[in-house]
């Protein structure tokens, strides 16, 4: 069985932890692993390989996280623009054999009961072998209004329900045969494509055209034009709610979509503590809480102290601080909408930014200068490039840098420095066996990330 991992997401619901370029599934939340990594590891016992569907801008981030968990059997579909779940799954299935069994999972959900999960997958697999489109229904533990529901009789689906009001959700909970729609599915690739062609033939045909445009089976890159020609629709609306081949596996496996800070609080809070604390660093200071209860504190470098406050969400990052009532965390989207108007970079990236060659962290950013800490992984290099509006001073902290400036190439070792003039063609490379760490000081009238002219780039940017 092949695990199709859907990595879509705009990074808004858990802002400022998640951003557009580091959405929720890639944020390392628990035990130093991201939800994406946890999903991959969770499915290894039941699937032979992973098929990752990701935004093209998050490819190297996903690749880096796969390498950190030593996964070697995987394939990528890189979308230049998202078209929702039906096209994403179709594009993946079109590259597979008709009888290939696939397990479709989102990459940003949490599952705490592995044994129950594997048991549910085994049941779904048996139903899928019989030619069914199988969904996973989560036994509700409270009347949630933010999920869709599946009404069932055993494994038979009676109906799909939209997100209900609180009264209706309570009635679903009391009736006992309504389940949260988890967004996970199991079926044969050919069965899904046949049903898609039957109920959404325009998506099916456009998806075929998009896959024909790319011949690389290991990393599929549909063109922007071919993706834009596909109608945006979810698998639920396009197929599941119309097909007569739909089944459901009811299950109770400690599932959460972690779709809000309230949900994160539920996962972090322990019975023995007054507050839920999620430290982001190994050495994050322990919060001081005086007569304060039932708060979520996501901490980093700063010391946080609370006095006489209850039921708050406090999320601290290097460049943004969110404070909210716990019950109001769904309004984070409204905050992000305003952030995009006032300081759009805060919605896009963290100060720590991951790149295919390593990462950089902005330490200081002022009007005419910027200071960065740059880490270049072993045997990696940046693009050959130049800048029109800034000069750069490089100081190596550890490792050895191979520096190219115009026609000259030379080494810069620890505690040595070099200078790149505005307009000079240059490249930074790490030919060594350990990470290269260096400080970069940019000075100029403009230090934005778009002042880069790439002349040669091994990553195809």
Bulk shape: globular
Q: How many helices?
A: 12
Strand content: 25-35%
Fold-level CATH name of the largest domain:
Spore Coat Polysaccharide Biosynthesis Protein SpsA, Chain A
Instruction: Classify the secondary structure makeup into a structural class.
Output: alpha/beta
CATH superfamily of the largest domain: Spore Coat Polysaccharide Biosynthesis Protein SpsA, Chain A
The residue ranges in which pLDDT falls below 50 over 5 or more consecutive positions are: none
- Quick one: biggest sheet? 10 strands, mixed
Structure write-up:
With 461 residues, the chain is α/β, with parallel strands linked by helices. It has three domains: 2-256, Alpha-Beta Complex (Spore Coat Polysaccharide Biosynthesis Protein SpsA, Chain A), CATH 3.90.550; 261-332, no CATH class; 352-456, Sandwich (Jelly Rolls). 24% of the residues lie in helices and 34% in strands. The protein contains twelve helices and 32 strands. The strands form eight sheets. Strands 1, 4, 5, 6, 8, 9, 10, 11, 12 and 13 form a ten-stranded mixed beta sheet that branches. A hairpin with a 4-residue loop joins β19 (312-316) and β20 (321-325). α3 packs across α7 (201-212). The radius of gyration is 24 Å and the shape is globular. The chain starts with a strand and ends in a 5-residue tail after the last strand. The model has no long low-confidence stretch (mean pLDDT 93).
